[in-house]
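Can't paste images in this forum, so I'm doing it all in text. The chain is below; anyone willing to post the predicted structure tokens underneath?
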Amino acid sequence: MSNWEKNVAIFLLSLLAICAILGIPWAIWGMRQLTEEEKEMWKTKGFKWRVLTSAVAVFAIFIFLIYWFWCLAEPYNVYQNIVIFVIPFLIIGGILGAMWAPWGMKHGRRFEKK
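Text version of the structure:
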């Protein structure tokens, strides 16, 4: 039996670690470089919790997939594991789309680049 599932889990863990190691300093640098209009966006009602929820959701997907491929994926075939890989992204994409759409409809025009 091959251990390709554990290899996928290690790859996802490595990708998550790289994103954290590079993403956190870039996010800090980006927050320091905000323009006045962007600072105003952060003060808009509902923006902060949506950004935080989006970041936590992506992190949670990676943790779930790492756990799935490391512990649970072996009895399933490749196609079933591909479905388990794709479905969480579709679910979170739908949830985040539904979460961001009302904010965008209400405040989007105010922050459009001209």
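The two ends are 58 Å apart (CA to CA). The chain has a mean pLDDT of 94.
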